[in-house]
């Protein structure tokens, strides 16, 4: 006899008890990386504050069904959004009595949406241009490339110095054309955690009559507190002449639930082209400040509750703990033979690479760290920059720092004992010569199977426990082939569960 209550995809023949559904979700979550505990150095931001999750979840639940589509219908959400924008604007050098008293902003669903909207506002402010362009350092977040792709804007990339990992203002100035609508810089860059020369870049943008956006999605809620603690943070916000917009993610170092970001403009005239309005149809007149129309109030309420609960004193304490953790992790790298820092940490990132030891494979090291419970983020080599390992450091890491050094040394020893990954000659040749156009779904499926990837089989798991071989293959491939390989692989993972 068939069990009609057995789950079939997400829709069983008969509804299931709530407790069973929650048990299923918990079972699925068991395969995830740990979001708490200070051992995951990417994707999530854990302050390690007792009770904060419960507060944010309760606030989220209060407003989960509130719809941000119409602020006149749900003024509570408008009030919370305005409060978040005001807090971010004041923290980043704007507001009454500042050099930028007329700062305005919008709450978005994340940093990528904020960057897309910054590009849209700049593009739409110059409707006379048929081929608008933006200038972005190669270290700028990939979301700028996504914005350029979505909005049909040309992307002019500026190289970074291999030692400082920063672009020069002179190179930015040389890249600006009459069609340039926006110049971007980072505070800090995600990959390496360094702050671009914002004041110099903003000056050359202003001289050319071009908007300058500071992507502070990653560090905008960390750098001001670090500065208050005495860190030598260079000017990067609205105190800098020529900075016209800034993005800052609250679901990063404001430790709010995902996804909440704030896009700020120096004044309302600069923000105006960001909006979309449409009345040429028989339904309601659509007016959207951001990309989404319907938006849940849950994340915004969660962010509001988080900021209200932690306050300035709380964020200062968390920044101090994070700074202490960064110093401890960096010291562990300095004292580990075979490794070096890509750059001295100046924000909340520790980025390490090899010192030339041919017996130590960074990608194997990443796997060995994961086997010891430390989940780091490998970064492939690019344009003369070596492969590296990225650690996003949060306040929750501070209590675990003493454990990291011995585990790092042990992982290095194990990586040396295992030896570097050696790809078969034919696979290496394929990676270096295959064109993206020749990469069929069938070929990717075969590669995935050969590398031990499950190809979307939920029973087998989406990826193996060790990824060094995969990362070595990607590192050997040209950039365009890397992109296509990963697009096709994700396509293999995203299959209907019938």
From TrEMBL:
One of its GO terms (biological process) is carboxylic acid metabolic process. InterPro entries: GrpII_AminoAcid_Decarb, PyrdxlP-dep_de-COase, PyrdxlP-dep_Trfase, PyrdxlP-dep_Trfase_major, PyrdxlP-dep_Trfase_small. The keyword Lyase applies. Coiled coil: none annotated. It holds the Pfam family Pyridoxal_deC. The modification N6-(pyridoxal phosphate)lysine is found at residue 252. Keywords: Lyase, Pyridoxal phosphate. Its cofactor is pyridoxal 5'-phosphate. Signal peptide: none annotated. GO terms for molecular function: aromatic-L-amino-acid decarboxylase activity; pyridoxal phosphate binding. SUPFAM superfamilies: PLP-dependent transferases. Belongs to the group II decarboxylase family. Sphingosine-1-phosphate lyase subfamily. This is Glutamate or tyrosine decarboxylase. It comes from Micromonospora mirobrigensis.
């Amino acid at each position: 006899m068939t069990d009609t209550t057995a789950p079939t995809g997400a829709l069983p023949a008969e509804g299931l008890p709530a407790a069973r559904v929650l048990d299923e979700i918990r079972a699925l979550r068991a395969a995830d990386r740990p979001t708490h505990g200070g051992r995951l150095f990417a994707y999530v931001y854990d302050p390690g504050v007792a009770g904060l999750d419960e507060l944010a979840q309760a606030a989220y639940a209060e407003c989960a069904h509130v719809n941000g589509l119409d602020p006149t219908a749900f003024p509570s959400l408008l009030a919370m959004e305005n409060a978040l924008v005001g807090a971010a604007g004041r923290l980043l050098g704007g507001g009454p009595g500042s050099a930028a008293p007329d700062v305005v902003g919008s709450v978005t669903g994340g940093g990528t949406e904020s960057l897309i909207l910054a590009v849209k506002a700049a593009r739409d402010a110059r409707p006379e241009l048929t081929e608008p362009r933006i200038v972005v350092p190669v270290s700028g977040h990939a979301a700028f490339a996504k914005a350029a792709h979505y909005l049909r804007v040309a992307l002019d990339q500026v190289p970074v110095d291999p030692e400082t990992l920063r672009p020069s203002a002179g190179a930015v100035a040389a890249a600006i054309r009459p069609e340039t609508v926006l110049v971007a810089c980072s505070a800090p860059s995600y990959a390496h955690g360094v702050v671009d020369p914002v004041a110099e870049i903003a000056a050359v943008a202003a001289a050319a009559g071009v908007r300058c956006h500071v992507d502070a999605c990653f560090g905008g809620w960390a750098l001001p507190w670090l500065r208050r603690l005495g860190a030598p943070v260079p000017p990067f916000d609205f105190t800098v002449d020529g900075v016209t917009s800034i993005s800052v993610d609250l679901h990063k170092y404001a430790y709010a639930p995902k996804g909440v970001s704030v896009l700020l403009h120096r004044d309302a005239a600069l923000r105006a082209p960001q909006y979309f309005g449409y009345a040429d149809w028989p339904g309601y007149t659509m007016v959207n400040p951001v990309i989404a129309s319907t938006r849940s109030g849950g994340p915004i309420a969660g962010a509001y509750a988080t900021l209200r609960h932690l306050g300035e004193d709380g964020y200062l304490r968390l920044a101090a703990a994070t700074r202490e953790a960064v110093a401890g992790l960096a010291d562990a790298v300095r004292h580990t033979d075979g490794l070096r820092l890509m750059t001295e940490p100046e924000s909340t990132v520790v980025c390490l690479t090899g010192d030339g030891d041919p017996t130590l494979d960074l990608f194997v090291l990443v796997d060995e760290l994961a086997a010891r419970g430390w989940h780091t983020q490998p970064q492939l080599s690019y344009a003369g920059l070596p492969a590296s390992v990225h650690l996003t450091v949060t306040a929750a890491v501070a209590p675990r720092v003493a454990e990291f050094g011995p585990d790092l040394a042990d992982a290095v020893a194990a990586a040396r004992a295992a030896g570097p990954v050696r790809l078969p000659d034919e696979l290496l040749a394929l990676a270096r010569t295959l064109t993206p156009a020749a990469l069929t779904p069938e070929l990717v499926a075969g590669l995935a199977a050969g590398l031990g990837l499950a190809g979307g089989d939920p029973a087998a798991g989406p990826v193996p426990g060790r990824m060094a071989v995969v990362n070595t293959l990607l590192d050997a491939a040209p950039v365009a082939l890397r992109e296509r390989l990963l697009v096709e692989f994700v396509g293999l993972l995203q299959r209907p569960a019938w």
